[in-house]
């Protein structure tokens, strides 16, 4: 691998956003238009949930399929350079998500996680799931 391609890959990785992603913005806009108010990237809670409905103690995460290991298997990175690094990285992300869920649940929060593709393909369904949970908590 030449130096240029390594620099380019490093540059591309640095452009990945951890907040205000398209999937987050899509879900937030849909919630806002339904009159559902929230806090975003709420740093007072473990994992800084993407959306928090403090009144109902609901924490929502908008998870991208790659970074959060949707359909992850050990073979997921067979044809990838540095495959062991990526396997470990995604496994750690999955384990961290589980730990964050547990911490939030122990604090009395209900955790909802949506895959990016579910948000982009059927935003209304995601909003309806959140609204159903709000109704249950009323």
Shape: globular
- Give the helix proportion (percent range): 40-55%
The whole-angstrom Rg is 17 Å
Instruction: Determine the oligomeric state from the structure.
Output: single chain
Structural class: alpha+beta
Strand content: 5-15%
Number of structurally distinct domains? 1
The CATH class is identified as Alpha Beta
Largest sheet: 4 strands, mixed
Question: What is the tally of helical segments?
Answer: 5
Number of strands: 4
How much is the average pLDDT?
86
* CATH topology name: Endonuclease, Chain A
CATH architecture: 3-Layer(aba) Sandwich
What is the succession of H and E elements?
Answer: HHEEEHEHH
Order of strands, main sheet, comes to 1-2-3-4
Structural account:
- The protein has 138 residues and is α+β, with helices and mostly antiparallel strands.
- The chain has one domain (18-137): VSR Endonuclease (Endonuclease, Chain A, 3-Layer(aba) Sandwich), CATH 3.40.960.
- It is 50% helix and 12% strand.
- It has five helices and four strands.
- The chain has helices at residues 3-14, 22-33, 83-106, 116-121, 123-137; strands at residues 39-40, 51-53, 58-63, 110-115.
- The chain has a four-stranded mixed sheet with strand order 1-2-3-4, sandwiched between helices.
- Helix 2 crosses helix 5 (123-137).
- The longest helix has 24 residues, at 83-106.
- The protein is globular.
- The termini are far apart.
